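The following record pairs a protein chain with its ligand, protoporphyrin IX containing FE.
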Amino acid sequence: MSTHPVVKWIDERLPVFTFLNHELRDYPTPRNLNYWWSFGSIAGIVLVVLIGTGVMLAMQYTPHVNYAFDSVERIMRDVNYGWLLRYLHSNGVSMFFIAVYIHLFRGLYFGSYKSPREILWAMGVIILLLMMATAFMGYVLPWGQMSFWGATVITNLFSAIPLVGEEIVNWLWGGYSIGNPTLTRFYALHYLFPFLIFAVVFLHLVALHTVKSNNPLGIDATGPQDTIPFHPYYTAKDFFGFGVFFLVYLGFVFYAPDFFGEPDNYIPANPLATPPHIVPEWYFLPFYAILRAVPDVEVFGFVLITAKLAGVILMFGSILILFFLPWLDFSKVRSSRFRPIFKQFFWIFFADCLLLGWVGANPPEGFFVILGRIGTAFYFAYFIVIIPLIAYFEKPRPLPESISAAVLGGKEEGKS
Ligand code: HEM
């Protein structure tokens, strides 16, 4: 830490420098982290960009059904660099989901959810749920056709809840249809939620620094020979990662700003004209496929659970099941590098998520109905049946003695 008298003076009264030194500089980090470990920090930086651009957009946006669409057009055309703010924000959401999905699949592959990181993982799942709610409400704000109809479809899902469903939907809308009260409450919550995400990310990091990072070998550090200080090694590595990631991000912003967007959202919302295909943004597509996958559940011709209710339960269940993963996968070995069967099923699961995404982007007809059902069945089977069975029957490969033995030993041990 700097010995500058001003730094010392502040630190004696508020030990921010001691804290930063401890948590960001000397912080012992496994010496073998690869670039997949940069995505947590990348997600954090994108979150800051989203909050920064969002606050500035809010200074020009008008949350009223009669003005919202035009105020966004004004931002794009008349506000200085308004187009840049908006494209950084709208593409930033996609980049945020890309970073977080990579981060999540990294965790799945290397078993980062296992003891002692269960709470760290659970915080991540809470962040994911909050991100989804925030992105959904943000998409409604420009009040285009997809904003309006997407909100109609998704809020209507709650009507599937028996007895109180209709009341819940009216309560969410603030009236008997999607309208101005819906837009203003979505705006208020869309502004609030990113700060909640920020708070949960803070707890996520507190948990991380308590239990320390996992690593590609999935074994614990046994001593100082297995770790290196976070700064300058991982600050440098992470900054290189940001650089590459931001080139891609800015590539979209400047050269293909509507790549992730939906052309129908450039048409003002019209409650009297339903678009032919209502599709959510790409990051919701697998969940949308799960929502539409199941038919009515009938017993002797009597509909026990409607397709809509079953779809809603499965869609929420597909995320909530992640909370239980640390206990469903009770294998003691973390990293897939030493779990040959787990590794193969991990990649099948990954392909299944892509398949569900493709199904979600298409109308639920013919071939896609079958694919959606197979994909959904596999999704749940993976967590509930396959993972526990593998944990029970698989014979893992021998683990290296220590991180330093594996990386310095010159052996190919531990390479996947
Ligand atoms: C706003 C979103 C998020 C941010 C900013 C964030 C941030 C971070 C950071 C900076 C790290 C340490 C670096 C790294 O391991 O990559 C980390 C680790 C971790 N995160 Fe996240 N995270 C987010 C979302 C999630 C989600 C959605 C999950 C899972 C559901 C998750 C699970 C984990 C786990 C298990 C670790 C420990 C990884 C390890 O040590 O191997 N995170 N997170």
